[in-house]
Each structure stands twice: as C-alpha cells, then as structure tokens.
Design goal:
heterodimer; A: alpha+beta; Heat Shock Protein 90; 5-stranded mixed beta sheet; two-stranded antiparallel ribbon; 21% strand; B: 114 residues; alpha/beta; Rossmann fold; 5-stranded parallel beta sheet; globular
Chain lengths: 226, 114
C-alpha cells in the first residue's frame, strides 16, 4: 500500500511538470517575442511526452491482463521508430544522437509495444541528463547469446541508490528517485517494469562521465525475414 | 542582465519571454555560478530549486556566502510549495509557484529589482 501511494506521488509529481509548462506556454501567446508556430510546436512536444507517460502508466496496470504477448520483434525497427519519434526533441534540446547497430540476430523475443517504451524512456532519460551539445548513444549488439540495447549518456553520474536498484535488476518502487532533480525517475521505473515483464535483464553501468542503461533480450529462434 | 536558472528548457524560455530584458538561461547551477565568479553579475536571478547537480538551495548558500553576490536579488521559481517559507536570509525577494505564476508576476519582479 505504501509503495502504491509512493508511486502515485511520483507519477503526480512528474505529470504535473508538463502541465505547468503547458500552462506557461498558453500564457506565452500574449508575449509576441516568439511566433505562434514556435509555441504551438513546444506545446505539442510537451503534450506528447505527457501522454506517452500516462499511457505507459496505464500499461503497467494492465500487464497482468494478458494484453502484451511475447512475439518475435525486429529490434532495429523498434529502435528506428523510437529515434524517429524523439529526433525533434534531441534537435530542440541541442543534443546529438549517435546510433550503432552491430547485432547479427535481428529478432528478439519481446513485446513490441513494451520494448518501444523501454527504449523510448531510456533515450528520453539520456537526453535529459546529457549536457547541451553533447551526445547520447544508442547501441545494439549481440552479447552472450542475447541482443543488448545500450543507451549511454554523458551527463552526471547515476545516483548510487538508483544504480543499486538497477543492479538488482529492477526498480521496486520509484520513491528513491522521486525527488531527483528534474526527475526522469518515472521513465526508468516504467522501463524497469516492462523489461521485467519481458524477462529481459535490465541494468545500468556508471561511468565517470555519465551512465549506460541496458536491456538484454533473448534472441528469437524464428527465422528473420529482415 | 537577468539570469534564469531552470533545467526545463521550455519553461526557461517561457520565463525569458515574459522578462523581455536581456536574459541568460542556464540549465544548471554550476554554469551560472561560474559565470558570476568570472565577474558577470546579474541584476536579478530567477532560480528553479530542483536542478540537475547542485540544487537551488546549494546555489543560494553559495550566493549568500560572498559579500558581493549576497546582494543579488533572487526569485525562486519552483513547483514545490515554498510560499510559506521565509527565504529572505538567502537574498530571496520572492517565490513563484510554477503551477500558478503568470507573466505579469514575473514582469513585476523585473520592474522592481532589475
């Protein structure tokens, strides 16, 4: 019960932020220093992010309903979809995104929808914590008979409490990261929940100049058509 | 020059639009403090509290610890409800809540302090 209340608090905290920004953007229409088009685009970007988070929260509640079947998923196609979706946010925030695919096996066993959310949340987190004019990296490779998706940022090192939870393989509740400055803790919590549902190994590596988040997925035995 | 220290880029731009005077935006406290140490003193600072790296309170502590920077007026802009807190010993001249603030309130501080 306590954990559920904590989770609601974190979700409320993080979802309030885009609403406050939207309100300011609406008020900005009177300040004619910027064009309406610019404000409109900012409102769409902020709304999209908030809607995605709400959808992910709904999915967490519905994981046990059997709606998310495991299937062969083309991992590069999912990553391409996510990077296309987030491209304008990276440009807007002056971050570069470096992408490298070296996996020979193209299919993994996962749920396409959930895997999309995992990669999306990792990349959004990387964008948030990377400094301006630095880059985030999305690397997909094969490792010990699995496909490993790594998202590396060059921001401040991951706090020890979050790293410990990620090292255990999952974030049990988002309380410890709730008050992280400019928190993207909810995104990591969502990614952690979805990875566990897919029986994927999830974790983080601390670097002196940033953090790598990764998810290891089993290779699908189905012949690849890609 | 007015500083806006805010890690949400869009929120920072909203505040800057309302200010209308020359503004410099910082996404973290360290960059802003480095600029001040290099001698670029702002007339007024709009400061978010929950920042990446050192938070707003750390920045305020640093600011009041030097005689010259202690005089810089600061308006705290936060989603935390700090309106009841007395932050005047930190040089804070006002507190704006991100959920309810308006461009007019921002302009009022610019008129009075910048």
């Amino acid at each position: 019960m306590e954990s559920e209340v904590d989770g609601i608090l974190v979700a409320a905290h993080e979802l309030k932020a885009p609403l406050a920004v939207l309100r300011q953007l609406a008020l900005s229409f009177d300040e004619m220093n910027s064009t309406n088009e610019e404000i409109r685009n900012e409102m769409i970007a902020v709304s999209d992010r908030a809607i995605k988070q709400v959808n992910d929260l709904i999915k967490i509640r519905r994981l046990k309903d059997g709606l998310f079947e495991m299937e062969p998923v083309a991992v590069r196609a999912v990553c391409d979809d996510v990077t296309r979706e987030l491209n304008h946010l990276f440009i807007f925030n002056k971050r570069d995104l470096f992408i490298k695919y070296s996996n020979r096996s193209k299919l993994v066993t996962a749920n396409k929808d959930l895997l999309h959310s995992v990669v999306y949340n990792f990349l959004l987190n990387a964008m948030h914590y990377s400094g301006e004019n630095t880059r985030a990296e999305l690397i997909v490779k094969e490792y010990s008979g699995r496909v490993k998706i790594i998202v590396r940022d060059y921001g401040p090192a991951l706090p020890m409490d979050v790293w410990r939870e990620m090292k255990r393989g999952w974030i049990s509740k988002p309380t410890s990261i709730a008050m992280r400055p400019g928190s993207s803790g909810l995104g990591l919590y969502i990614a952690s929940k979805f990875s566990n549902f897919m029986h994927a190994e999830v974790g983080a590596v601390r670097h002196r100049d940033g953090t790598s988040f990764f998810v290891n997925l089993p290779i699908s035995r189905q012949a690849s058509l890609f | 020059m007015i500083y806006v220290i805010e890690d949400d880029k869009i929120m920072a731009k909203c505040i800057a639009r309302a200010i209308k005077s020359p503004v410099k935006i910082f996404s973290n406290a360290i960059d802003a403090m480095n600029e001040i140490i290099n001698g670029v003193m702002p007339n007024l600072i709009f400061l978010d509290i929950l920042l990446d790296g050192p938070d707003g309170f750390t920045f305020l502590n640093e600011l009041v610890s030097y005689s010259d920077t202690a005089k810089i007026p600061v308006v705290v802009v936060s989603s935390l409800d700090l309106r009841e807190k007395d932050l005047s010993s930190y040089g804070v001249v006002g507190v704006l809540n991100k959920d309810t603030m308006t461009p007019e309130e921002i302009k009022k501080y610019v008129r009075n302090y910048a």
